[in-house]
Amino acid sequence: xxxxxxxxxxxxxxxxxxxxxxxxxxxxxxxxxxxxxxxxxxxxxxxxxxxxxxxxxxxxxxxxxxxxxxxxxxxxxxxxxxxxxxxxxxxxxxxxxxxxxxxxxxxxxxxxxxxxxxxxxxxxxxxxxxxxxxxxxxxxxxxxxxxxxxxxxxxxxxxxxxxxxxxxxxxxxxxxxxxxxxxxxxxxxxxxxxxxxxxxxxxxxxxxxxxxxxxxxxxxxxxxxxxxxxxxxxxxxxxxxxxxxxxxxxxxxxxxxxxxxxxxxxxxxxxxxxxxxxxxxxxxxxxxxxxxxxxxxxxxxxxxxxxxxxxxxxxxxxxxxxxxxxxxxxxxxxxxxxxxxxxxxxxxxxxxxxxxxxxxxxxxxxxxxxxxxxxxxxxxxxxxxxxxxxxxxxxxxxxxxxxxxxxxxxxxx
Length: 413
Prior knowledge:
Blueprint: E1 2-4, H1 8-17, E2 24-27, H2 33-44, E3 50-53, E4 59-60, H3 63-78, E5 83-87, E6 98-101, E7 110-116, H4 121-130, E8 133-143, H5 144-154, H6 156-167, E9 170-172, E10 175-177, H7 180-184, H8 191-194, E11 203-206, E12 211-212, H9 217-223, E13 232-234, E14 237-240, E15 246-249, E16 254-257, E17 262-266, E18 271-275, H10 282-291, E19 302-305, E20 308-316, E21 319-326, E22 334-336, E23 340-348, E24 351-355, E25 358-362, E26 367-370, E27 376-379, E28 386-394, E29 403-406
Parallel strand pairs: 1-2, 2-10, 5-11, 13-15, 14-16, 15-17
Antiparallel strand pairs: 3-8, 4-12, 5-8, 6-7, 6-8, 7-11, 9-10, 17-18, 19-20, 20-21, 21-28, 22-29, 23-26, 23-28, 24-25, 24-27
Helix pairs in contact: 2-5, 2-6, 5-6
């Protein structure tokens, strides 16, 4: 798995929850898909396997269809070909690129004649009616060596930067880190633009299932199985006289009356309201937020750590309230703070707490106060997640006011 380093603990927990053991390769900064795949290919080059490149944000109704498509394309990929998975269009979609293909061979593999850019609506209709154009799913099959050779032909500067980044690789717990400075110097581009659109002799196999890349709120609306009024409702939502809308609440009650074709998304730190037809323009709002230095554009309300996660509930002058979740068997670092005191209240599970010279076993509804400067540690000795409320008070409440004295995860002190 390749992911940004900010998502590493969330990715690790997802793999753990699925019982999957695998390596997680960390990008120090985002550089789009072409460099990300290059890092994976360089790591795998010694065995030179066929790589199945799967973006994480796709939805498929039938995983068996994916298995069939991979089986069809594997022979061509083993022969050194670059293979794309295409999806038969179900509608004249303007948000996808298209693959124009020749007739299938007996094995089901087709030659890609050319890539078609994201079209306007009328052009998308002609693509759909032609019968030889397929949505570009962004799922690919190729040997590590074949991809790197194509990258050498079409984007040598990118490959050179990735090689230097891999030369500086080192382990960090279950993660693989690359050289940050080298990867920051890498050009940013997608697999499609950097390699595939410039390559000849591409192949395609059909992914025969209902598929979406979930690239917009409208796509999430459709993937959520809308009700008879055309509404997809997620979370605590009450509506009246609403049609063809996507309403999503992550916490608070969300109500809507007399609206059509809207997207409303509530999270703990922001609320989005948009027309469904304009939901692709959300990136313009994100750009405006970043220009104003808004932290909501770059940080998530839930912060994942190797031991679990925490979420900020409230923040005021000289106080902060968090909800902390600790995975069974995990523990925080032994630490202290120079600028804040903390009060822990257990709301679910059992907590083993070091508080100065004391070691306490706290159950639901029990609490402890940790004065400023006290050495302390939190551990979950149980078999169910531990949840507690933490109230911080002090002159400075930043996450960098942590002095780690001992840490089982090898993080810097």
